[in-house]
Fold these 2 entries.
Entry 1:
Amino acid sequence: MDNTTYGQWMSTDQPGLTVRRGPEGLVCLSTPDGECATLRHLLESIADGLARGEGALEGVTSQQARSALRALHLA
């Protein structure tokens, strides 16, 4: 994921988790397990405890999702 289409990585209050904006409403997450991209509303559902992460988001907790959304909001 390059910086020409995606924004700069932003730190969160969760160890090993960074986040950045992607094109067309995507949110990109980087964890020690790798990078993935998702739609903001899916990340919001995980943050609210309404959905569990599946696929590349399987290990993302609601606390991590909330932290990522906060970092995006503050940027």
Entry 2:
Amino acid sequence: MLNKQFTIMQIITSVYRFFRPRILGMVIALLFLAIVLVSVIGTSWPAIDQLPQNLDDQSNIKGIGLLIFTEFVVPFEILSIVLLSAMVGAIYIAKGEAGR
């Protein structure tokens, strides 16, 4: 039988000790979530008004490349950093305890 009685202060202290090393990660995750939500809500999401000019090649790779490297340079670079950090995190998790 457990004889130890928990007071409110002990519970708060144990919760604080649990979250203390994780606070920075949670703040960064919340900031990233806020940026993503503002970006999604603030985007106008324009619709296509007309069909592509060349019906044989509807992929329009040249147009996509031109847009990525002219209009959407900053979002493209931010996305590359996010994907790179996800890849590094996946490698770290996959390595497990043997690599430490």
